[in-house]
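Holo prediction — coenzyme A.
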Amino acid sequence: MVELFGIKLANSIERDLYEKALNFLPNETKDKIKRFRRYEDSLMSLTAELLKRAIVCLKLGINNESVKFNRSAYGKPYLEGHEDFHFNLSHSGSWVVCAVSSKPVGIDVEKIKEIDLDIAKRFFSKEEVSDLFSKNGDEKIEYFFELWTLKESYIKADGRGLSLPLNSFSFRIENDNIIFTSNDEPRHFFFKKYDIDKEYKFAVCSMEPQFPEEIDIKSFEEVFEFLLNNEMLKKFLKRN
Ligand SMILES: CC(C)(COP(=O)(O)OP(=O)(O)OC[C@H]1O[C@@H](n2cnc3c(N)ncnc32)[C@H](O)[C@@H]1OP(=O)(O)O)[C@@H](O)C(=O)NCCC(=O)NCCS
């Protein structure tokens, strides 16, 4: 079963908590997070790092210090020493979401914003462009972001990211059914979209067919507490 977790940062986090939370991360990751010019971007990146660490500690029963992430040649993050533990992250606006699965998985969240829909002609398949421009008024922008998040979830599950041509595969959404076609050799991918926030679109792709009905939503503070307890438990076990 795919599992989904998310954090929506409704308010900004106090600087003090931000600094304390940084200490759960290895120096290299801390430096990367501190390099963001805008505090909001730095905070979102920190939130994503904390969420993914907490999930790994929780699911695998290991302590935070032994969690080591690496990236594939295409940039897809994986957990060193646990290559069969599949996860993926996405962030946009105030949301950070993470998917976990026993098979390759990809997730995407996008904040819906006004854009020039002609961009679809550059990135989407011919069929997708034709479906998109057949929609009325506001439906167009909604449909654009539904297609976009599905496409991103697929390239992220596949792992090749943008080196997989975005027009080499196609989605059609008909009465909430997601129809997927691809020029690649047939492989079984399953998709689900989530409508949990009207300003955003969410999509998940996995080679595993079972998806939850909902995303398990946590707060920044909850995730921080979890990692703090994980650290205290480790200290306690060391003493005994
Ligand atoms: C990097 C990419 C995989 C996702 O980018 P994105 O949608 O802008 O950003 P998201 O927040 O959803 O995902 C970023 C996360 O995906 C993960 N990721 C990076 N490369 C990945 C890959 N090859 N496969 C799977 N996951 C990947 C990382 O965890 C990354 O976060 P981090 O850099 O903070 O660790 C890639 O698809 C991209 O650059 N997209 C640009 C958007 C675009 O032009 N889309 C076309 C519209 S259809």
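READOUT: The first strand starts at residue 3 and ends at 8.
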